[in-house]
Amino acid sequence: MNSTLLESPMIAEAREVGVRCRGVVKEFGDGETRIRVLHEIDVDVLTSELTLLVGPSGCGKTTLISIIAGLLDPTEGEVELFGELQSALRGRRLVDFRAANVGFVFQQYNLLPALTAAENVSVPLLIQGWARAKALIRANEVLEQVGLSDKFHSRPSQLSGGQQQRVAIARALVHGPRLLVCDEPTAALDAHSGRTVMELLKQVAVEPGRSVIVVTHDSRVLEYGDRTIEMADGRVTSVS
Ligand SMILES: Nc1ncnc2c1ncn2[C@@H]1O[C@H](COP(=O)(O)OP(=O)(O)OP(=O)(O)O)[C@@H](O)[C@H]1O
Q1: Is 16 near ligand 1, meaning CB less than 6 Å away?
Q2: pTM value?
Q3: Residue 106 to residue 193: CA distance in whole angstroms
Q4: ipTM higher than threshold 0.90
């Protein structure tokens, strides 16, 4: 794996708050069917760390990371990403800020089956208007960083689950986002592939100025967290 993903001795000094949630409330529904699924969440996520978000099914983990990543708006409260208060950004500026600063990795890799690994990774750059040749060069660099330099031309069906997840991570990182949000990234993987993916996410997380949040049910990955936020019933119950 390329050394740009690896930790430098200075990083421990460089931790700062990447994500700050204050009083975040989320309600769904209207009238009598209205339910509150997040209750005034106050939590910070530091840079240069891998933060795990854990808790029982239905406790609000996906809702919270969706709000942090800007896929959902909070009903009340504020989210600040890298010093930018999200409620202060509007319209195009908000969309552009999130596109530049947030990458997503999901349990299902969501790769386009007809495209090669390199083409899949280049998609976010093409959407941003990059020329195809330049986007493919950058995609190949990132595939190299995630240990897949021999798979540039492979289609998803020719890759193992763990390799597909690494392509999905490369795609999420190709535009250099400061926040990487991963929802159950190892849930579909065997133990060995799960470890490889978590080791990769850990390497990505230690980059200066970057935060990585991993939502997980998978007890096998708990050892990879620098910090663990535990939730229950829509509340943060511990940070350790
Ligand atoms: N769009 C929605 N409309 C209504 N209720 C919702 C909606 N999205 C989530 N919920 C409810 O909010 C609660 C929290 O859901 P969420 O998906 O955030 O939990 P989770 O901790 O991620 O669960 P899991 O670990 O099973 O994925 C659940 O009770 C869920 O049913």
Answers
A1: no
A2: 0.89
A3: 15
A4: yes
Q: Are 196 and 162 in contact (CB under 8 A)?
A: yes
Ligand 1 center–CA 104 separation, angstroms: 18
What CATH number is associated with residue 119?
3.40.50.300
pLDDT, tens digit, for every residue of 7-24? 444 444 568 999 999 999
* Domain contains 12: no
Q: Is residue 33 part of a domain?
A: yes
Q: Encoding tokens for residue 14?
A: 């460089």
What pLDDT is attached to residue 3? 44
Domain enclosing residue 142, as ranges: 17-239
Question: What is the domain count for the chain?
Answer: 1
Residues with Cβ within 8 Å of residue 211, at least 6 apart in sequence: 18, 19, 45, 46, 47, 48, 49, 51, 178, 179, 180, 205
Cβ density class 95-133: b for 16+ within 10 Å, e for less: eebbeebbbbbbbebebeeeebbbbbbbbbbeeeebeee
Position in ligand 1 atom list of the atom nearest CA 63:
18
Q: How remote is the CA of residue 80 from the centroid of ligand 1, in Å?
A: 22
Task: Name beta bridge partners: 51.
Answer: 213, 227
Does residue 192 sit within a domain? yes
Q: Alpha-carbon distance 36 to 90, whole Å?
A: 25
- Closest C-alpha to ligand 1, atom 28: 58
Q: pLDDT tens, 182-213?
A: 999 988 888 888 888 898 899 888 888 899 99
59 ligand 1 Cβ < 6 A: yes
